[in-house]
Amino acid sequence: MEMLEGISADIGVPVDQLKVLIWLLASYPLGYFHRFIPGKFLRHAYILVFGLFCVLAVCGIWALVHTLFVSTVAYLLMKYLPRKLVPKSLFFLMFGYLSTYHIYRMLTDYMGWSMDASGPLMVITMKITMLGCNYRDGEKKEDFHEPALVGGAWSKNAVEELPSVLEYFSYILYFPTILTGPGFHYKIYESFIDKSMYHHEKHNPKSEIPSSFVPAVKLFFVAVGCIATNLGVLNFFPTATIFDPEQFDQYSFLYKNFYCYMSLFGTRFRYYFAWKLCEGAAVLNGMGFSGYDEDGNAGWKTLTSVTIRTIETAGNVRYLTTFWNERVAEWLKLYVYFRTTKKGKDRPPASANYITNTASAFWHGFYPGYYITFIYAALTIDVARKIRSSIRPFLVEGRYPNEKVIRPTEKFVYDILAHVFTMGTFTFGMTLFVGLSMENAINYCKSMYFFWPIIVVVGFIVFTFIVPAVVGKKKRE
Asked: Which of 38, 234, 275, 347 could form a cystine bridge with 305, CB 3.0-4.6 A?
């Protein structure tokens, strides 16, 4: 520990963050060695042992106790409750336990950050609630209804039999991703352990683990580039300045928007760094396999958490919710958003968007900034959808990817404005998110003259009431 403290002092990185970094780097050789371990039992045991060690070494003994306790209770509920009660019971258990811990952290370390039980608890909340829904879906009773828009994901990931204790705990404690995610379905993990995911009659009839060295190394160097970008940008645009009215209010309105964009651009690359580093370790381990192309080349996209280029060039708010923290977005979409769909319907109710964003806020914690962000995000998504459906039909014919542009100049202007709106609202919301407290949120909104919330509210009024009324009047005439 003294050695870590010395290194921490030399490089200016807190000890807990240094331990996370060391573990993520250690996951590469540990994951690679796991490829050569034979038999399902040993493969499960290896992952479980290092998963337990990871939580203990990085987060501490109490984090391990919390993780094992709540996951044990969840397993017992799946084992002894009727299956139809399992999904909601596990959601109440995991969100209740995680929420209690978030509140405890706020009371004992308000506005602080340390690597404790909250990281593993957030990851296993995803995994256990997914498994609970998949276990319920595996029953395939007459009341099972899968909306068409889910695309068969519930049936594909349905779990017919409850995993054994060893299988269950090795799944939730998968060591390359237990600290920062991503989460993934149990069926994916099961096919990884028995190597059936790699089987292909033509390209891999023996189900051997394809080489993933090159894609893993690429992900590692992408992560290095991300942390370099993060440190370089935030050196010139520190986020703390945004929440200091005396300093931030000296800037012009346009420069404030530019400053926030650059600062949050740099902040996003810190998230990219952690996600890409974890993804690289998992890919080197053999997880993340996504099939073969026509030439037999293996793909490794199943555990992708973020598509950086799509996020940074987004011209549609929907892309942000889809490609930012993709596995969390998938979890919320499949097991919160679409689970609100009533039997016999293919679309969830209008309230599903707000329910999903509220669940996301609960999962993150209870700082006011989270709730302001997700309420604002839900309204922004709603407005963006209305704007898109009202304007794009005048610019293009057909649907993506087969759409045909009929007004190129107007479409070009629309795309520019859409990108500005998307990144402006995204930057505003993310700033509230990282600001955490109500005081920071109020100071920031005042400094920005509430510009982006006003734009969103005006857009909601115009495209919910005025535009439909005008279009309806013209149709009647």
From this structure: 275
| Number of residues written out for the chain | 477
Q: b vs e for 9-27, b when ≥16 Cβ sit within 10 Å of the residue's Cβ?
A: eeeeeeebebbbbebbebb
Tokens 């889910």 map to which residue? 150
Q: Kindly calculate the radius of gyration of the chain based on its CA atoms and give it in whole angstroms.
A: 24
Band (pLDDT 50/70/90 cuts) for residue 146 is confident
Residue 85 DSSP code? G
Closest listed residue to residue 446, CA positions, set 432, 460, 436: 432
Q: What is the pTM of this model?
A: 0.90
d(CA 292, CA 269): 30
Helix, strand or coil for residue 7? Answer: helix
Upstream peptide bond of 182 is cis (omega within 30 degrees of 0): yes
3-19 pLDDT, tens digit per residue, is: 666 666 656 667 777 88
**219-246: per-residue pLDDT in tens?**
999 999 999 999 999 999 999 999 999 9
More confident residue, 407 or 102: 102
Contact 302, 288 (CB under 8 A): yes
CA nearest to 283, candidates 43, 51, 27, 58: 27
pLDDT of residue 476: 47
Number of helical (H) and strand (E) elements in the chain, helices listed first: 21, 4
Q: Which residues pair with 200 in a beta bridge?
A: 204
Cα 187 to Cα 199: distance, rounded to the nearest angstrom: 15
Residue 24: pLDDT over 80 = yes
Q: Would the pLDDT of 1 be above 80? A: no
Q: How many CB atoms lie within 10 A of CB 352?
A: 18
Q: What are residue 83's phi and psi, to 5 degrees?
A: -60, -35
